[in-house]
Design a protein that fits this description.
binds 5-O-phosphono-beta-D-ribofuranosylamine
Length: about 190
């Protein structure tokens, strides 16, 4: 049977990967629907990429504990019957309780070839290490930082004279292709 994933996208900032998903849906190359976009901060650009009814702020600063914060996110996702949770530039680590609630249904995109350079500023880490090839990874989320089974990767060469900005930009172009492609696979295999 055809499965059209209902997506919940978690963001913390710019939202260009969210935009890539929205564009793929609009152009008909991805059969999915974005049901809700949840940001852990108010006022970020990602929120204005969807209609107001789908843009939700769950401000971490407004909750006494990570547990309370995650509970609100989880219930908002469940209320909208989200089948697949996409972390698209969501800058927080989720607890095992949250991950267990959506087991095997949380996907993250990271701007390096994992397991190399997990964590923050992966592109700068790659440049500082001196690798000649970097890229991006889409993986299932578990409790570890940028761990979990790898679903897909794209390689991006590091060019002489690259800065964190130029490398990030080149990797980002690949991210925008890779994330919708992996979501498409979910639609196909479920
Ligand atoms: C991307 O580089 C993504 O890989 C990382 O955070 C960045 C988010 O960018 N996790 P955007 O908000 O999707 O534009």
């Amino acid at each position: 049977m055809k499965y059209v994933p209902r997506l919940g996208v978690l963001v913390s900032g710019r939202g260009s990967n969210l935009q890539a998903i929205l564009d793929a849906i609009k152009s008909g190359t991805l059969d999915a629907s974005v049901e809700v976009v949840i940001s852990d901060k108010p006022g970020v650009p990602a929120l204005s990429r969807v209609e107001k009814s789908k843009a939700v702020v769950v401000d971490r600063a407004a909750y006494p504990s990570a547990k309370d914060f995650e509970e609100v996110i989880a219930s908002k996702l469940e209320r909208r019957q989200v089948g697949l949770v996409i972390l698209a530039g969501f800058m927080r680590i989720l607890s095992s309780a949250f991950v267990g609630r959506f087991a095997g249904r949380i996907v993250n995109i990271h701007p390096s070839l994992l397991p190399s350079f997990p964590g923050l500023r992966a592109q700068r880490q790659a440049l500082e290490y001196g690798v000649k090839i970097s890229g991006c990874t889409v993986h299932l989320v578990d409790e570890s930082l940028d761990g979990g089974p790898i679903l897909a990767q794209a390689a991006v060469p590091v060019l002489p004279g690259d800065t964190e900005e130029t490398l990030s930009e080149r990797i980002l172009k690949e991210e925008h292709q890779l994330l919708p492609k992996v979501i498409r696979e979910f639609a196909r295999t479920d």
